[in-house]
Design a protein that fits this description.
The complex is a heterotrimer of chains A (282), B (423) and C (269).
Chain A: H1 4-33, E1 35-38, E2 43-46, H2 50-57, H3 59-90, H4 97-109, H5 112-122, H6 129-134, H7 144-172, H8 176-184, H9 189-217, H10 221-226, H11 238-247, H12 252-281
Helix pairs in contact in A: 1-12, 3-7, 3-9, 4-7, 7-9, 9-12, 11-12
Chain B: H1 2-14, E1 29-35, H2 42-55, E2 59-65, H3 70-82, E3 90-94, H4 98-103, H5 116-119, H6 124-130, E4 131-132, E5 135-136, E6 139-145, E7 147-151, H7 152-157, H8 166-179, E8 184-187, H9 194-205, E9 212-213, E10 216-217, H10 222-236, H11 250-258, E11 262-267, H12 271-275, E12 286-289, E13 303-310, H13 317-327, H14 330-340, E14 343-344, H15 353-358, H16 362-371, H17 381-397, H18 402-422
Parallel strand pairs in B: 1-2, 1-3, 8-11
Antiparallel strand pairs in B: 3-13, 4-5, 6-13, 6-14, 7-11, 7-12, 9-10
Helix pairs in contact in B: 9-10, 9-17, 10-17, 17-18
Chain C: H1 2-28, H2 32-35, H3 49-56, H4 60-91, H5 97-107, H6 113-125, H7 132-157, H8 160-168, H9 173-184, H10 186-202, H11 205-210, H12 218-223, H13 233-253, H14 255-263
Helix pairs in contact in C: 1-13, 3-13, 4-7, 4-10, 5-7, 7-10, 10-14
Classes of the chains: A mainly alpha (282), B alpha+beta (423), C mainly alpha (269).
Chain lengths: 282, 423, 269
């Protein structure tokens, strides 16, 4: 067949728009980050690596990076555990299985902004339903300790369905015979889970971890709407810090430097996981 | 095929950028007026604008409401004005934005609208806030300042007077709280947002502290550390402020106080009318006075309020000026004060009989507004505030010591101002 | 006994997933005065006032229309571009095909925050600020990786013989794509369409940054609800219910499709 050059023509449009709207901006953002650029006052001056030198000494940046790492680690771990539990639960056969699966998808489908607003109302100290049901008066979004955990909770609630879906699919391709064989060997259900389910599910778990870690690390909407980064920046992630610098005061130079940090971190996380996955396969 | 049809629909709708306004008559000039939400009944404000249209038959005004918080409104204006193609003519600005917007070249010079003799009728604080490089870039619209609300009935019952010093407020609160354990002592706005800066400055100023003195950055001072530590102590040491103040904005405070659950509250004047509404549980029980001060300092209120400006590149400067002139006229000021409880910027109205009968505490506000202090008047204020908000929040929640928070703030603000000076 | 335990556990999970939305529904029909106090949990005197107010006072009809146009156009454009690209990758010879696919996938890992500042400048320069076109453009590109990935995987499962037979019958490659591959792949196309639509309907960062008034979408409108000093919680709840219902309906109707789409690739790959 002489369809070779044709193939390029089919792929080219997508490649071109992807390059224009994602690759080119990332190069541009790097260029911006080498400038002191205050869009408001029309100030634009090349300052080489000054923004990065300031960044290294910027306590607020390090605080944001710590928050992001903590947020990512804890929420991904919880999502995985909870998702695994629900997936195993739903993998049994029972009536209303289809309906229950659809209900589990609800949090995933709700716009992140809406879910943040919903929880914000439920976390309200005075008239929130959570305090009412627990019979306490905790200032969830006002105390630095609770606020970051509330944010993690909202993220876990919102994204667990995604984990459930992927793990359920993974569970379904595990051959039934393996379980019956294990049962004959006298394995209990915990042992079966450990020696059959977990190892065979591992590739899917890695994929889940990859997607979720990348998403959690660049978290923006949920936290931005829920707490705006407060109190005392205890929930400010790097994305939120970058966004505030970029669009509340239009400091495009330093803001770009901050947003590039998110780019490099997610890039490294992606490469790390992909190495791990391909390493396992060979 | 169906896709193509949909695509065609999409192009039809999007490309002309949805300009489907029905112009009621082609001869009228339409100007767009953007402002924050007007409190009270929105119809009253619309009536005022219709009144303007009747008087100026050639002009139609379309007014559009912006998002809630001042920070969000700021982002809206900055991104729209910066693009150089804003689609509005007249807009209202928080008192802290005017130098920034003037420096950015987005505002029309309105100095001629306020000749010297006219200027004398306005409060001095707002005039200072709208002046940049000796020109006037916006006209004050209504004025706000921080006040201390207190429960007249409770204080009277136990024989206390409204406190004039902060430590006095603490002791009165503690005494009353021990008699009624369900009561909060003093509530104020401590969430990480612009309102926290307003609150904190009142403590700082009333201890003779400041942020910027002339050209000098004086934020890391003993006076300021003392004031911030006192704010934190209100919550954690004296326990007269509940920990919910660290997330509170104006309305939650107003609700708590309005339900009769607190003795003292710091808030803006708008709360007064709401407390005295027919169905209010605290009707007739609320008093208002100036904020307390520390031993050595004097009572200080942060200046708030909104100003009207004209977009530099508007196509209808004449009509826009007419609208502003109308909105700041004594009649309109009076109407807005009656309808929405917005306080006039004209001093003469504080002697107006009608107004005083309907708003008896207005004369009392006069001396507060006369002395209300603007936040640092600099084009870099928003950047400075972005630094102050989290640092103050960290200090009052106890994440950082006040000294550490102020040291860090001094460093960051220094960096911003340095960058601004070099150009 | 064990069975009862299972159902109890299941009930807890269902309540956890659907409870918050149900609470939102309950809140949205409470009177404003009742929202700020608990108990009672459920309104004694349900009202539709907040729903009316959302349309009357906050022009939500406009925002919903905007969101529909953006999500609809994004879905169409993304599927058109993506399916053509996938066809090339799956059925035609493309040099370094796997590298190209890897590149497209890696784009899905790009954090939007890292591109938002230059995109803002570009959009402003093109005069596209506060237009729906700006959102359609960015949403289309950021949903392309997903579209290409799902469709390439699906096209690969269509036997090559069909392609060759059609070519021998005199079809040009584009005709094969348009007349044979697309119709054959309707289920996969549909699945992808749902996912892209939901992505675009829910997207916040770009919508927040590139629009200000006339092109505002629903999520941004909900995040930036106007109030004076307070949050109009009743209206927010009503608006949340309004934007969420269409999506929930999609999910309940097409649960199986969505699951297929999300897992395609992730498990096989």
């Amino acid at each position: 067949m002489k369809d070779k050059e044709r193939g390029i023509r089919y792929v080219a449009p997508s490649l071109i728009v992807l390059t224009l709207v994602t690759v080119y901006p990332v190069l541009y953002v790097f260029y911006l980050s080498l400038h002191r650029k205050l869009l408001i006052f029309n100030i634009s001056k090349f300052i080489a690596l000054d923004n990065y030198l300031f960044l290294i000494r910027d306590e607020r940046f390090w605080n944001a990076l710590r928050n992001t790492a903590y947020f990512t680690g804890l929420s991904v771990a919880l999502e995985l555990l909870l998702g695994l539990g629900i997936a195993v639960l739903l993998n049994r056969s029972f009536r209303l299985k289809g309906a229950s699966r659809a209900i589990v998808l609800i949090p995933w489908a709700i716009p992140t902004v809406v879910s943040a607003r919903m929880w914000e109302m439920m976390f309200n100290t005075d008239f929130g339903v959570i305090n009412y049901l627990l019979g306490v008066k905790i200032n969830w979004l006002g105390s630095p300790f609770w606020a970051i955990h509330a944010a993690i909770f909202v993220d876990v609630w919102k994204t667990t369905p995604f984990v459930v879906i992927l793990l359920t699919a993974g569970l379904q391709v595990i051959p039934r015979e393996l379980y019956s064989a294990a049962r004959i060997d006298g394995a209990g259900s915990w042992q079966m889970f450990r020696s059959v389910t977990l190892p065979l599910l591992l590739p899917v778990i890695l994929v889940v971890l990859l997607f979720r870690t990348l998403d959690a690390f660049r978290v923006f909407d949920a936290v931005y709407v829920l707490t705006g980064g407060g109190p005392a920046n205890s929930t400010e992630t790097v994305s939120i810090y970058a966004y505030k610098v970029l669009f509340q005061t239009l400091q495009f130079g330093y803001g770009s430097a901050l947003s590039l940090v998110v780019f490099f971190c997610t890039g490294s996380i992606g490469i790390f996981y992909i190495r791990l996955m391909t390493g396992r396969r060979t | 095929m169906r896709y193509l049809a949909l695509l065609a629909v999409f192009v039809l709708i999007v490309v002309p950028n949805c300009s489907s306004e029905k112009s009621d008559s082609a001869t009228r000039v339409r100007i767009v007026f953007k402002h924050g939400k007007i409190s009270g009944d929105p119809e009253e404000f619309r009536l005022l604008l219709r009144h303007f249209e009747r008087r100026n038959p050639g002009i139609a005004v379309r007014d559009e409401t912006l998002p809630a918080s001042t920070d969000e409104q700021h982002q809206f204006y900055v991104t729209n004005l910066e693009g150089g193609r804003a689609d509005f003519d007249v807009f209202s600005m928080d008192v802290i934005w005017v130098p920034e917007f003037s420096r950015a070249g987005w505002l029309m010079d309105l100095s001629d609208m306020l000749p010297q003799e006219e200027r004398l009728d306005f409060f001095p604080g707002p005039i200072r806030a709208v002046t940049f490089d000796n020109r006037i870039y916006a006209i004050p619209w209504y004025i706000d300042a921080g006040l201390l609300f207190y429960r007249k009935d409770i204080l009277a019952k136990y024989g206390f007077k409204p406190p004039e010093k902060w430590d006095n407020l603490v002791s009165v609160s503690r005494a009353l709280m021990s008699r009624d354990p369900g009561l909060y002592g003093f509530i104020w706005q401590g969430k990480q947002y612009e309102g926290l800066v307003c609150n904190a400055l009142e403590f700082i100023w009333s201890n003779n502290g400041d942020i910027i003195d002339g050209d000098r950055l004086v934020i890391n001072s003993g006076e300021n550390i003392y004031a911030l530590r006192f704010m934190r102590d209100l919550i954690y040491r004296y326990r007269v402020s509940p920990s919910l103040v660290t997330t509170a904005t104006e309305e939650p405070c107003r609700h708590i106080f309005g339900k009769g659950k607190a003795v003292f509250m710091r808030n803006w004047p708008y709360a007064w009318n709401l407390f005295n509404a027919e169905d209010s549980p605290v009707k007739g029980k609320v008093g208002v006075t100036v904020l307390p001060s520390f031993k050595k300092g004097r009572s200080s209120s942060t200046l708030g309020g909104w100003q009207l400006g004209i977009y530099r590149h508007t196509k209808h400067p004449g009509e826009a000026r007419k609208l502003i002139k109308f909105l700041i006229s004594p009649e309109s000021q009076k109407a807005l004060s009656l309808a929405a409880g917005y306080n006039p910027v004209r001093k003469s109205l504080y002697r107006d009989r009608d107004l005083i009968t309907k708003q008896p505490f207005l004369p009392g506000l006069f001396r507060v507004f006369m002395k209300a202090r603007p936040r640092p008047v600099t084009p870099y204020y928003m950047m400075i505030s972005q630094v102050l908000q989290p640092e103050f929040s960290a200090a009052i929640t106890g994440i950082r010591s006040p000294a550490a928070a102020l040291t860090s703030a001094q460093k960051q603000i220094g960096h911003i101002l340095e960058a601004g000076h070099e150009r | 006994m064990k069975r009862a335990g299972f159902y109890a556990l299941l009930a807890v999970v269902m309540l956890y997933c659907a409870g918050p939305l149900a609470w939102q529904l309950i809140t949205s029909i409470k009177l404003s005065g009742e929202i700020a106090v608990l108990p009672p949990l459920v309104s004694t005197n349900p009202t539709a006032a907040h729903y009316l107010s959302v349309f009357h006072d906050y022009s939500f009809a406009r925002y919903i229309l905007n969101s529909l146009i953006v999500a609809g156009s994004t879905t169409i454009l993304s599927l058109l571009l993506g399916s053509i690209c996938s066809f090339g990758l799956a059925k035609l010879r493309v040099p370094f095909a796997s590298l190209v696919l890897a590149f497209i996938l890696s784009v899905s890992m790009f954090p939007p925050i890292a591109t938002v500042s230059p995109l803002y400048i570009i959009i402003r320069t093109l005069g596209l600020r506060d237009t729906l076109a700006a959102l359609v453009m960015t949403h289309t590109v950021f949903s392309l990786p997903l579209t290409v990935w799902v469709l390439t995987n699906f096209f690969r499962t269509v036997p090559d013989d069909i392609y060759h037979a059609a070519r021998i019958d005199g079809c040009r490659p584009f005709q094969v794509y348009w007349k044979i591959m697309l119709p054959l792949s309707l289920p996969a196309v549909f699945t992808t369409a749902i996912l892209v639509f939901i992505f675009s309907w829910n997207e916040f960062l770009f919508a927040l940054t590139f629009t200000s008034a006339s092109a505002r979408t629903v999520p941004v409108a909900i995040a930036l609800f106007p109030g004076i000093h307070e949050m109009p919680w009743g209206e927010i709840a009503a608006a949340s219910v309004i934007v969420t219902l269409p999506i929930i309906l999609l999910v309940l109707l097409f649960q199986r499709k969505i699951v297929e789409g999300l897992t395609s690739g992730a498990v096989k790959g």
